[in-house]
Amino acid sequence: MSEIADKVKKIVVEHLGVEESKVTPEASFIDDLGADSLDTVELVMAFEEAFSVEIPEDAAEKIATVKDAIDYIEKQKAA
Amino acid sequence: MFRLDGKTALVTGASGGIGAAIARTLHAQGARVVLSGTREAVLAAVAGEIAPDGERVHVCPADLSDPAAADALVSAAEVAAGAPLDILVNNAGLTRDGLAIRMKDEDWNRVMEVDLAAPFRLCRAVLKGMLRRRAGRIVSIASIVGVTGNAGQANYAAAKAGMIGMSKSLAQEAGSRGVTVNVVAPGFIQTAMTDVLSDTQREKLLGGIPLGRMGKPEDIAASVAYLVSDEAGWITGTTLNVNGGMAMP
Prior knowledge:
The structure holds two protein chains of two kinds.
Chain A: H1 3-16, H2 37-51, H3 57-61, H4 66-78
Helix pairs in contact in A: 1-2, 1-4
Chain B: E1 8-11, H1 17-28, E2 32-35, H2 40-50, E3 57-59, H3 69-81, E4 87-90, H4 105-133, E5 136-141, H5 145-148, H6 154-174, E6 179-186, H7 192-195, H8 199-207, H9 217-227, E7 239-242
Parallel strand pairs in B: 1-2, 1-4, 2-3, 4-5, 5-6, 6-7
């Protein structure tokens, strides 16, 4: 797993207080990990801070799963 | 009841009569208080009067008409107090009165900026930490005119009504994290400004107040102390009208 994926996973575990094993790439924050809308906003803000990226509102709306987050951040970092 | 031991509170506009009374009351209930305002010397004097030994009292001056000041103030307050903020009291405000047909954009904008935008920015800044910690209390000091309107105060009334709508929205956003957001809307409070009223003016004013007297800064401070206490944990999005019965919305 990439360094970014590791860090995303760690943030999700920490923020949502879920078991690490549940944080699979396909896991949906809301449907599988018990997040509410406020959690997802807080997660996006935590990603922004941790990776020094800006995630605009329309992009943030599309981040539903762990993989979505990893992909988006990897793309931003590669650009 | 209503003890605030171990809690840290930021009070803006703490150099004014109401702000100083709020800070004094929260401190007396056991809170650590950070006083903010534009007049550093007055803040220092209020701090000295609250706790001559400087125990649990800090001063962080800020000019909230600067958009960057709100974030900076929250950081500075947490550094000064050595603890995250549990309580925010948005009390700072100003007036630029005048009948609407003669009101300048500048006077409208300045009141909106200091009385509505700055409290919003302070709420936003403290909410991040409060949501994470699953606890927090925000109380904003509006005004009876935000509920009733007042000739000559279109800007001030709009800003204070805006504060009420904002607080109700924030209360809904933050409720699931145990953070409450409420408003206290004071009526006529005895201050240097109302001391100069003529006897006739005073009589007329008092005639509209069922409880027959003007409010004291301590009347406002006591309601704030209640709303920020653990005991008020099931009250959010409400506006407490503290006005002697002058308006009963």
